[in-house]
Fold 3-deoxy-D-manno-octulosonic acid transferase.
Amino acid sequence: MRAPPLYHLYVAATVLLAPFVAWAQIRKLRKQGIPALRAHEIMGNASAPRRGGGALIWFHAASVGESLSVLALIAKMGEMLPRAQFLITSGTATSAKLVADRIPPRTVHQFAPLDARGPLTRFLSHWRPDAAIFVESELWPQMLRMTRARGTAMALVNARLSAKSRAAWARQPGIARYVLDVFDLILTQNDQMAQAMVDMHAPTDRVARGTNLKSLSAPLPTDPALLAQVRAALKGRPVWVAASTHPGEEATVLAAHATLQASHPELVLILIPRHPDRSAEVAELIRQAGLSFATRSEGVLPRAGEQIYLADTLGELGNWYALSEIVFLGGSLHPIGGHNPFEVVQARAVVISGPHVASFAETYDEMQASGAATVVEDAPMLAQTVARFLDDAELRDEALRAGDVMLEDKSNVLGGIASRLIRMLKLDEDIR
């Protein structure tokens, strides 16, 4: 397929802009504690060898959620392809840290190369992937076309584009067709997105409905020693969790907790802002609300009489979920899109959410219908819902059982997706 003029213009622009973008990105990674050797991976300079043996399968994701969503898929494909090697790339320091903590066997993480000819040439020449699997909305034109030009089999999984992104691609049908033509298989999260990809000129015979990979991810890791310490510090006090909160949501959560203190004076709230660098801001909100608290990043545990534990660290979410059967999931009281409810259900907790869950709309419809999730809109509703689950063990158990059933229904899907990718990407010969 001939490249449209806009693609050539984009390529020319990257030649001019790449040095400036590289400088800014490397500087950002270095400030976040990434060693210089690793930060320069964005220039295509590999910091690890390509191992021999079977096929090398490259997974490319954008950031934390996308990266973590494919780890279970990599592990499953690794079981089915015992000789294969895996490479996962992402763009943020946070994703690199979390992936490193949970990385599957025979898998290497690297920072993704910039979408420019020099970095991509170095990257592809070193890694020589036999198959490339892109996640959600990672549609970088040069990365896709240069990878395809090497004869690499390619797939897009968990495909999801926002309405704004779809509109932008729709205004450029030529380049949309040119970019999407690289994929041998496009698996979307739902039927609506499958139709959207076809409307964007993806090859109709290569588009199929998959599932939301976040529903298939492994449970969040926990630290038994830390859990024992925190449980000892709590001394049996009841706990609820507000996780992945964004600006504007903490005030609602704190108002709900203040209300709950009247009927449940021993109740502890574990408050987990989505971005730990907002810790000081959230701490000030707690002070203004007149509530007492301890802060995880200061190395202290919840103390007697303190009403809130501010969990402002990365990579410990699984521990906090394990301490309560009641979790409010943020990113949902305002139009942010919501966060992954499956991680909550896997921790055997009931899900409470705001109404703005566009990123998981189909999932929440299913969970609400089964009773595994409850949607609230404001502080009084949140306080009332938490109180009901605290006081009614039977109601809480019903919601937990509904979550168990949902997870069981999903348990066989992962193997089916892995098998489909192996077949469509012609990796079958690596099975021995």
Summary: The chain has a mean pLDDT of 91.
